[in-house]
């Protein structure tokens, strides 16, 4: 049973995870504590039943799960700092992009039972796509991590070599999807809607499109075919977007983000 979760790093993602775990009807009874040097920036989490503080070492004491929600360049110093208080049984989770489990194990004096987890910020409302890879963990430990994150969205275990790709497609992907919604909203204003109504329509339309794929397990093109009629307005709009490089720009954006992760890991 998980009695205490320590989240080291109360930035946007660390705070979102804390909120998601608490709101999900967490599969454990105990404390969620989040640390950040500028603790005043996360004081609002206390209103949701989350403890906050500055002392990483104290936060990790007696923790069953420790989530490292820090930048890759901070990882080694943080692990060195918390190691004296880190129990042998604690599950160590890293959110740091581009730092593989073997390297994390080396930082932690050969520690096993390491997980790399990449959720996205929709975890705060229980709608994350969370990708997980495990390193020298047991099936029981894998099950604990799955049980922990499943109430916050969808969990998918993947090979570790795909974690950089998962970071781009799932975590960065939130921003890419939101940028589409913003652009659609701006277009809606151009064709006559007020901005609030345009945003509502665009957002629900994207949600509906995603649900068609998730629930129906259909290919996007099959659903597109249902609304593109000969000489119709939909195909005209789609073709113009493609002429302007819509799909190409999105794919190039994904590749650019991926290459940045890959280049960063090589520098280390």
UniProtKB/TrEMBL annotation:
Q: What is its main location?
A: cytoplasm
Instruction: List positions binding NADP(+).
Output: 8-13, 69-72
One GO cellular component, as annotated: cytoplasm
Query: Could you give a single Gene Ontology term from the biological process aspect?
Result: L-proline biosynthetic process
Residue ranges of the Pyrroline-5-carboxylate reductase catalytic N-terminal domain? 4-98
Is Cell cycle among this UniProt entry's keywords?
A: no
Q: Which residues bind NADPH?
A: 56
Q: Which domain of life is it from?
A: Bacteria
Pfam families, per this entry? F420_oxidored (PF03807), P5CR_dimer (PF14748)
Q: Where in or outside the cell is it found?
A: Cytoplasm
Could you list this entry's UniProt keywords, alphabetically sorted.
Answer: Amino-acid biosynthesis, Cytoplasm, NADP, Oxidoreductase, Proline biosynthesis
EC number, as in UniProt: 1.5.1.2
Q: What class of enzyme is it?
A: oxidoreductase
Similarity field: Belongs to the pyrroline-5-carboxylate reductase family.
Name the job this protein performs: Catalyzes the reduction of 1-pyrroline-5-carboxylate (PCA) to L-proline.
Q: Please report the name of this protein according to its UniProt entry.
A: Pyrroline-5-carboxylate reductase
Species of origin reads Marinilabilia salmonicolor
């Amino acid at each position: 049973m998980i009695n205490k979760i320590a989240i080291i790093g109360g930035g946007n993602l660390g705070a979102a995870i804390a909120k998601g775990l608490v709101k999900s009807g967490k599969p454990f009874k105990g404390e969620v504590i989040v640390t950040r040097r500028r603790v005043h920036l996360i004081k609002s989490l206390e209103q949701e039943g989350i403890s906050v503080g500055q002392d990483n070492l104290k936060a990790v004491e007696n923790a069953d799960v420790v989530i490292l929600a820090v930048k890759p360049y901070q990882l080694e110093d943080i692990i060195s700092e918390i190691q004296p208080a880190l129990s042998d049984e604690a599950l160590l989770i890293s959110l740091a992009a581009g730092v593989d489990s073997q390297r994390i194990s080396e930082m932690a004096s050969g520690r096993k039972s390491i997980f790399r987890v990449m959720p996205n910020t929709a975890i705060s409302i229980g709608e994350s796509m969370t990708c997980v890879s495990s390193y020298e963990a047991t099936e029981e430990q894998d099950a604990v991590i799955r049980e922990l994150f499943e109430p916050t969205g969808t969990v998918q275990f993947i090979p570790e070599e795909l974690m950089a790709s998962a970071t781009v497609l799932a975590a960065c992907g939130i921003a890419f999807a939101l940028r589409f919604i913003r652009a659609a909203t701006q277009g809606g204003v151009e064709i006559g809607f007020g901005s609030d109504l345009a945003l509502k329509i665009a957002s629900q339309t994207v949600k509906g499109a995603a649900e068609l794929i998730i629930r129906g397990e259909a290919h996007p093109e099959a659903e597109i075919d249902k609304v593109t009629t000969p000489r119709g307005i939909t195909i005209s709009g789609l073709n113009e977007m493609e002429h302007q490089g819509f799909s190409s720009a999105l794919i190039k954006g994904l590749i650019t983000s991926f290459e940045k992760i890959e280049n960063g890991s090589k520098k280390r």
